[in-house]
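Subject: N-acetyltransferase

B.,
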Amino acid sequence: MLGDDLRTQLLVRPALHEEAPIILDLWQNSARWLNSKGIYQWRPEYFNLEQVLEFMNDGSDVYLAEWNNEIVGTYILTWSDPFIWQELDNSESGYIHRFAVHREYRGLDIGKYLLKNAEQQIRLKGKTWIRLDCMAENPRLNQYYRDCGFQYIRRIDGEGWSANLYEKQ
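Prediction pasted inline below.
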């Protein structure tokens, strides 16, 4: 549970270019943990430093969460996602991607805090809808997003993968 100490000391801020390796490490560690649970939503070998830098340079907003001088989480906000959202992609939405919390800090509700922070950032950009997606075969994460108030929109199927789309107003 996120206590008052953590809530007041958790700093969510834009990531710096020189912090790209830290973000990559968060993604890869999250992927390894997921894979160890039999969940292949992310694969560590699919992530590389160029992807992090591409997000930082393409107009996306990349955030890090810091607590006691330790990086404890990250997320990315994009302002369009036609690949996943297809014909539903629109300019009234902000899209949360690559949401990850360092495994050593699980159980502290950091993830819920980061989602709320992302929602606030999206609203500050004047967007009406907050959107995200996750692998359809990850029941725990699908339930987590529903528990956080996101509504299921639909499932999409790609080559060798399926994702569920979620949004909230």
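The first strand starts at residue 11 and ends at 14.

T.
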